[in-house]
Predict the 3D structure of the following.
Amino acid sequence: MSAISDDSLDRQHSRQHHSRENARSVSGESSSQIEPIEQIQLSVHQQGAYRWNRPNYSRNRRRLEIWAFVLRFLFELWYDSKPWTYRGGYSEEKRARRRKRQAIWIRESMLQLGPTFIKLGQLFSTRSDLFPAEYVEELSKLQDRVPAFSYEQAEAIVEQDFGRQVGELFRAFEPIPLAAASLGQVHKAQLHSGEEVVVKVQRPGLKRLFQIDLAIARTVVRYFDNHPKWGRGRDWIGIYDECYKILYEEIDYLNEGQNADTFRRNFRDRDWVRVPRVYWRYTSPRVLTLEYVPGIKISHYEALEAAGLDRKVLAQLGAEAYLRQLLNHGFFHADPHPGNVAVSPEGALIFYDFGMMGRVRRDIRVKMLDLFFGIAKKNAEDVVTALVELEALSPMDDMGPVRRSIQYILDHLMDKPFEEQSVTAISDDLYAIAYDQPFRFPATFTFVMRAFSTLEGVGKGLDPDFNFMEVAKPFAMQIMSNANSSDRNTFFDELGRQAAQVSSTALGLPGRIEDTIEKLERGDVRVRVRSIETDRVLRRLGSIQMGTNLALLVSAFTLSATILLVNDKIWLALVVALVAIALAGSLIRLLMSVERSDKMF
């Protein structure tokens, strides 16, 4: 049906208006990504609101826009790092305020730069180990409320992918989208068999935009990776490759359909979980047709109560569903925010949007078990070893500082009973300690932590007394006792392995001592000693030497300016005098920093 009458449009708009909440839920877009129907109608005629919102993209123009953003960001980083730029003197409070303003500007700029950077910003909002808390907080608010593209463009994409007219494929196809986001938009439709479906159509030219933007982004990433300060201890190329893979998987609707089928099969024996069925006959890389499964968004508490649903039970079911995904299936929804979870009138959980999924391999579970035992024993050495094996921690020559940080976590965070722990608090403390440390949390790990925090927030919204850790305890015990048949090692097997390891270490101790003595005699053992006091003295001597050099330069330029002034070379004398004043300012700042350093000790 390529042509639709005005009366039909009015009837469709009326139906959409009365079922707005259900339509928003079934779309699979987050609540922050969904626009009211009236705004979507208006935005179809306002596609020029964003520079990137066009079917064809200029590589040179995109390069100019992206590098303008990057260069301004670099300048602000440099400017904010200079104490003399702060009116009334530098303070951490003023620095934090500037970071907050900069974070807001970054969020708004990423929205202006378009789909690629909107999705990158949403991915970065999970990386508290890489970015300051102010950036993460603002990026987590990133809403891709962008203009919907026209029905004619959506119709053209459907016809290009299937080689048939829309009217041949569907009995009805509503031209006004239910939801519009950066990657695509969702239309309600009806098959000729009478089944109601939703059709997710990708934004025109999106793949080409990704190719252009990610090619430019790689040059930016390479600059940061080679930077002497920002590249130190950071694998920006590895992070880029990770994001690249995630983004391309998310715009492949065939992959999303396969994920939905796998997710539905995993919960086929649970009648309290529903997943929309994929209509493969009407699905392509740019078009995804799903069963229309309306529901009440899980964060609409009043609507849930009006439907007679028990909010406490829903909180428990939400946590249990995710724990089953992670621990039993090894295949989990990486973005379980309230917009992607709804509740049916019967009380079943409905999951939407399977573009971003995570997987936990079987060998990773064994390593996670080693990590669990290390944490239970409060042994930082075992925890460090497990983190290195999980590739969440990069090995380095001196692991002492990292080991002490982890020991601090174990001593201060694990003093409460398991049931009283807060996922959000633990993840915040962990990321705070990991920031500027050699931790390399894989995307799977950050997705899990974000999902846990999100589910904890949703659970507390449904039930103020909800405790995620209390729900997770039986699953943790299940791993320990290995009730899950997919893992062969039982709890007692693990205890036996631990006991065997201890006895092996004890029996081998005399030989290790003898080897160490032999290495000492041969001179093969190097002892590294670091004295904080010596380091401080050396830094002070270096500062004094620099101050002496500056003082000599100030004297030389002052004398030169005086000689030039006596010889009536006024302008040249003024230039030399300005150089002398600048050097004098640097000397004063250096002396002040030396004085502050002395007061700290």
